[in-house]
Amino acid sequence: MEDIFYNLQAEPFRLSPDHRFCYDHKCYAKARAYMAYAFMRAEGFVMITGRPGTGKTTLIGELIESLADENVKTANLVCTQLHADDLLKVAAYDFGVDHRIVEKGELLQHLGLLLRRWHREGSRALLIVDEAQDLSESAMEELRLLTNIQENGKPLLQIFLLGQPELRDLVLSPALEQVHQRIVAASHLNALEQEETEAYIIHRLNKVGWQGDPALSKAIYPLIHKFSEGIPRRINLICSRLFLHGTVEQRHQLGAAELREVIEELQAENLAAGTELSREDFEVEDEFEPFSPATVAPPSPEDSSANETGMDEPPQGASPQTSEPTEAEVKPYLHAVGDDVVLEFDTATGNQISDTEKKKMT
């Protein structure tokens, strides 16, 4: 509806994750490169954590899309506190094991045969487990056992764990030390900073052919950031409702007054749980700049640090951008885990660096 009124090619602020709109803010490119590096190792666990709506699913979706020609067999699970045996069944069935097989030993046997056949055919298997923070310790241990399936010493299954920050606490628990040791890379997705929020909004609009209609006041960007707390999914919700409001009211300029109406509606409907805003927040002067698609350019990958986000979609047929970590970025260690865990491994040998080796290098 709003895309028609404003002559846009598509809806710019859809709520569902879509890697085609991916916005490379300052940490996303580096995180994606680490994920690609870990994927090339074809073993163990990869862990991605972040608050809901920060872009975990988007990051994985973009990676999988970039591997479309790599003969990768994937299974996607969303965990709602699955027990260990149920987790094994769901994973095996999603890979294609016959649903009539229910006994654990037989399931493992058939899954192993399937993985070995794929390996001989030149394919590899990837299991993606979403909402993994809800897994029990026994279920996590069951996943670790799946990574033991090998052919001539080569692991046949790699597992990506996606979850909220509690997942890191789970993996760091003493009972799951063996799981922790098998994490080859991990990344924690932080929220967008204020300037990134503005760049993110303009990025999405540019992707759908925005030509300055509606005109957006510079005053709304700090307010959107404050209310959304920099969470991309919340930004999408606010902007989607703002554009809908503009369409219904037939407004071709959207400023602080329009944004205030939208946020008050969202608060009344309990559809947003962001920071509460006062009337004083909206007592700002609107500033509508001349339209330029390049008004805000996304930060370059060189400015990256160690967090990431992104929830976007680009024009039909656009190919996702990929970037590999440079030698300088990954030597002598690869710091590939978020705020609490740092896993280090030598990029020349691919082996994890022991505590003794670390002391020699410092």
From TrEMBL:
Residues 249-276 form a coiled coil. InterPro entries: AAA+_ATPase, AAA_22, ExeA_AAA_ATPase_DNA-bind, P-loop_NTPase. One of its GO terms (molecular function) is ATP hydrolysis activity. SMART domains: AAA (SM00382). Residues 42-215 form the AAA+ ATPase domain. Pfam families: AAA_22. Residues 280-335 are annotated as: Disordered. Keywords: Coiled coil. This is DUF2075 domain-containing protein. It comes from Seongchinamella sediminis. The lineage of its organism: Bacteria, Pseudomonadati, Pseudomonadota, Gammaproteobacteria, Cellvibrionales.
